Amino acid sequence: MEPVPVTVIGGFLGAGKTTLVNHLLRQSGGQRIAVLVNDFGDLPIDDALIEAREGNLLRLAGGCVCCSFGSDLLDALRQLRNLLPAPQHVLLECSGVALPAAVARTLTLLPGLPLDAVLVLADAETVRERAADRYVGELVLQQLAEADLIVLNKCDLVDPAALSELQSWLAQRAPRARQLSCSHGGLDPTLLLDIGRAGSRASGHLGGPALRAPPAADTLFDSLSLEFDHAVDPARLATALADPSLPLLRAKGLLRDAAGHWSALQLVGRRSTIGPLAHPPALPRLVCIAARGALDAPSIRALLAHCAV
Questions:
Q1: Nearest-CA neighbor of 80 among 5, 132, 136?
Q2: Which of 7, 113, 241, 273 is the most buried (most CB within 10 A)?
Q3: pTM to 2 decimals?
Q4: Are 85 and 222 part of one and the same domain?
Q5: Same domain, yes or no, for 48 and 181?
């Protein structure tokens, strides 16, 4: 059974988590996404999209599902893991007062549900005020510190100078996290969902055609798709791609090692995971995504060659 990656979505009350989840459901592109929420009422879904209701499970159009877990997250995760067909990605929306790392630790209790990323939303208009609050400030700062990706939402409500200052402030408070900016939760799905289909704007390829990127990502991100014919050391490549000097937001590799074993490398921000690959492609491949203008294609190619075995 293929592992199903899980993205934990955190952030303080009102940051826009539900708006983001709804956006990702609408832009799923045919992927079977499962969403876990505390209560269905927290995630308003158009009735026209709901095909069936089975207890605490909603079956949605396009193969997506929504599951309410209340106080029993483990049971809800088990239900999702046993669905047929299985979801291809799980979005786990935390309460606004939860610490996402604590929620992510729950995943270690169940096989086949690896943590893909901790994504934390921040309200561009209010996050600094919340962080300075004597009652909730420590919680807000801890949520940010636990992020692999910080999504600075509601950027349309602040001017460019204030946004730039806020980005610098976030970099100091959460130096491990990569940052993304958006309005109305409009994050491009290729940054969280299966990027094996993401393509190559910056690009070029080795030994095969580049995969095409969705047009919506063209103005904000550059991507590089490489297909190659040699074995690599997956762990060494993961460490190299996560280096802060190479500001990748996302990478996915379908890799063959020196012994001929295949593995899937997933990188979000600076978090990377390596797992077995049940259905390898004809040739190994690597797809990388960075903010527009930040993708260093020559360095990525050099790293790939350096990690060859």
A1: 5
A2: 7
A3: 0.80
A4: no
A5: yes
